[in-house]
Give the backbone structure.
Amino acid sequence: ITHLLNSAHFDTEKDIITLEGDSRLWELYAFDHKVLLQLKAIQALPRKESAQALYVYIESLPTGFLQVSLERLRDRLNLNSTISTQNNVVRKAMKELADIGYLTFTEVKKNGVVYFQIHSRKPDLLPGKE
C-alpha cells in the first residue's frame, strides 16, 4: 500500500486486486485524467500544431459557454505571417478541432470584431477520432 491509496485488497481465490484511491487526492486524479484526455486530442491532431495549441488553450479555460476573439487566438498562436493568413490558420485550426469532435462553435462578428462562440467541448472526442 502506498500513500496514494486508501486501501488495497487481494482476493487470492479470484485472483483480483482491488485498489481504492485516497479521496483526499481527488485533484491529483482529476489532473491525471485531464492529461490523458489532452494526449488523446493531441494524438488525434498529428502535424496540426496550430489546432493542438488552440486545444490546449481552450481546454484551460473555464467550462461552459465561451466567447473568444479571433485576435486573442491569433495572439495565442504568435504567428509571423500577415493578419489574413493568421486568420485563415485560426479558422482552419478551429475547424480541425470541430472535426475531431472536441468542440462546437459559431463564428460571429460584433461591432467589427470577430468572435468564436464555443458552445460545447468534449475532451473525450468522437468515437474513432482518438
